[in-house]
Amino acid sequence: MAEGKKGLFSGLVGGSNKGNVPVVPPAVAACEQKIAEAYRRQQDVLLNIGRQYIQTYDKTTADSLFQPMLEEYASLQKEIEAQEVQKLAVQGLRKCESCGNILPLESAFCNKCGKKLEPIQAAMFAQAPSAANPLVCPKCGTPYTPDTVFCMNCGTKVG
After folding, report:
1. Among 42, 40, 66, 41, residue whose Cα is nearest residue 54
2. Residue 94 is inside which H or E element, if any?
3. Which of 2, 97, 139, 149 is the most exposed place for a label (fewest CB within 10 A)?
4. Alpha-carbon span 20 to 139, nearest angstrom
5. What is the pTM for the complete model shown?
6. Gap between the Cα atoms of 50 and 39, Å rounded
7. Rounded to the nearest 5°, which phi and psi values hold at 38?
8. How far, in Å, CA of 1 to CA of 24, rounded?
């Protein structure tokens, strides 16, 4: 290739900046990295403040400003727990309610702490009431239809 002519990819090899990509000076990049790290630490501090508040105050003593947020937090926690149970059940597993040990779904007792586990069906179908399905058994969490009188899983009256 002749000295002044350039090939199609000549600007991409060798670190050339012919593609109009702005080059960030190292000092600016270092500042941006420190700013991003400070933001991450700031978010961690706020998260820890929130966690400490939740652990210190319950819903009955909470300021009315925080009441809706604490209720939403509790609702989200129940939803997370129900989804974790569902996820394990789909994988053929379950968690011991006492010690947290992960076991095969068909286990009747925990092989770590010895606790008797609830029936398999309740673990597989346990759900928290939600806007999408508010009809779940209060005892075992099994969903039911509006015309149901008794839970098909545990027999609790639901209607």
Report:
1. 66
2. strand 93-95
3. 2
4. 64
5. 0.46
6. 17
7. -65, -40
8. 32
